[in-house]
Amino acid sequence: MKKSSTVFGTLCGILAAVCYGTNPLGALKLYAEGMHTGSVLFYRFGLAWIIIALVMLIRVLTRKESMRVTAKEFGSLSLLGILFIVSSLTLYLSFHLMDAGVASTILFTYPVMTAFIMGFFFHERITLTTITAIALSVVGVALLYWGDGTATLPIVGVILVLLSALSYALYIIVVNRSQLKMSSFKINFFVLFYCALGMVVYSLVAGEPLALPQTTTSWFYVGWLAIVPAIFALVLMVYAAKLIGSTTTAILGALEPLTAVLIGILVFGERFSPTLAIGILLILTAVTLIVVIPQRKKTQPAK
After folding, report:
1. Listed residue (55, 51, 50, 77) closest to 65, CA to CA
2. Do the beta carbons of residue 33 and residue 214 sit within 8 Å?
3. Is position 301 within any domain?
4. Residue 302 pLDDT
5. pLDDT tens across 98-145, in order?
């Protein structure tokens, strides 16, 4: 793989993690406005799908891409849609049961799940650098969780977040292993359509009718959720998974809980402590390891 492709993939992975880490910002603001989980996610996915659909319309009209898919591609896209529905819904439901920052730290178990699944089922070699990065990241997010010393963990909330983490790990792996020969925009055109449709079904089953955002503030945060942690995060994550692999993309996700903690401090006035500082430092160290060491090995002259 060319060095430029690896650098671009790494940058995409970092930006995807930061964008996805802003989920609590929009979700908590909309919950405070009185919107239910199904409505929040429906408008998030629905608006994101409309934007992606416009992009795809331009690509089709300019003959840069076709909307046709094979039966195998349709199966992979359907699986991706289902996995992202489960991951998003369980994470957003957990925000009702625990602090969003805590949920985001628990969500970070997905790189461990990704590395385990890739190693056990697909025989991907797990290097010492990868193991070290995972260990540092896990310790780092644990310190982020214990930063204020007051958190409690309801078992239902923990199960929901762990299910979200597993679904997201599988999503990254499917993107990487399915080798879909199409643009990230086309992949997410189908994924986001599934997600919006899934939220309609969930709202009917849960008995929570979809409700329009009632204020300008609500529409702003709906737009935020549609563009930043949906479109930007999904498009960038697809590029990252294709260029640098599932495990590396997942480990770069260490920046997700870091982003959530910084939002808590800067937006919601949560306390910043030395323990939080150490946790952040460990996460940044893990990201540095996973990014820098492979690059140094590739640039060293052969002996």
Report:
1. 55
2. yes
3. no
4. 39
5. 877 778 878 888 888 888 888 888 887 778 888 888 888 888 877 877
Residue 1, pLDDT above cutoff 60: no
Residue at 143 is within a domain: yes
**Structural domain count, the chain:** 1
pTM of the full structure? 0.83
- Residue 41 resides in a domain: yes
State the residue range of the domain holding 184: 3-296
Alpha-carbon gap, residue 57 to 296, rounded angstroms? 42
Helix, strand or coil, per DSSP, at residue 235: helix
pLDDT at 147 (0 to 100): 63
Tell me what pLDDT residue 130 has: 81
Q: Cα–Cα distance between 164 and 110 in angstroms, integer? A: 8
- Which amino acid is located at 259 in the chain? T
Task: Tell whether 247 is covered by a domain.
Answer: yes
The number of CA neighbours under 13 Å toward the Cβ of 164 is 21
What confidence category does residue 256 fall into, taking pLDDT thresholds of 50, 70 and 90? confident
64 burial type by CB count under 10 A (0-12 exposed, 13-18 middle, 19+ buried): exposed
Q: Kindly report the CA angle at 291 between 288 and 297, in degrees rounded to 5?
A: 115
**What's the alpha-carbon Rg for the chain, to the nearest Å?**
19
Region 249-254 average pLDDT: 83
Q: CA-CA distance, 173 to 179, in Å (whole number)?
A: 10
